[in-house]
């Protein structure tokens, strides 16, 4: 996967569902990538103000 491609897939998913909240695990099931990598992408997106972290509690799914 090209640099930044995973982050863009996460952005695309979030933009397709603007009224929903997602865990990295839930997104990983949809875009079929590692939940750990998605968690890292989400953290970066939150720091950049592109995504909003709505809960800092880890959840088991």
Write the layout of secondary structure elements.
Blueprint: H1 5-16, H2 24-31, H3 35-47
Helix pairs in contact: 1-3, 2-3
Q: Which tags fit this structure?
A:
61 residues, mainly alpha, globular, 54% helix
Please provide a written account of the structure.
The protein is mainly α. It contains three helices and no strands. The protein has helices at 5-16, 24-31, 35-47. The radius of gyration is 11 Å and the shape is globular.
Short synopsis of the structure:
The mean pLDDT is 89. It is built from three helices and no strands.
Number of strands: 0
Shape type? globular
**DSSP helix fraction:** 40-55%
Structural class: mainly alpha
* Rg, Å, rounded: 11 Å
> What profile does the largest beta sheet have?
none
Instruction: List the total number of helices.
Output: 3
Unreliable residue runs = none
How many angstroms does the end-to-end distance come to? 26 Å
Mean pLDDT: 89
What fraction strand? under 5%
Written as H for each helix and E for each strand, in order along the chain, the element string is HHH
